[in-house]
Amino acid sequence: xxxxxxxxxxxxxxxxxxxxxxxxxxxxxxxxxxxxxxxxxxxxxxxxxxxxxxxxxxxxxxxxxxxxxxxxxxxxxx
Length: 78
Description:
By secondary structure, the protein is of the alpha+beta class. It contains two helices and three strands, in the order E-H-E-H-E. It has helices at 17-28, 53-65, and strands at residues 2-10, 41-47, 71-77. The longest helix is centred in the C-terminal third of the chain and has 13 residues, at 53-65. It starts with a strand and ends with a strand.
């Protein structure tokens, strides 16, 4: 069984409203050095019964987990 982690983020150049809100809040709380904050999502799951978990996870990303028009993703297998 493989432990899969998929990290999904907006592509560079796509406005990240949540990231800007987090950046502004951190500035207001005393961390003025924070810049270019991006908010993404982490999807974790166990995957069993496949020969190549990384390839299967990539298919899942391309089909459902990421909107590849505006998002990029990274797959980790443990």
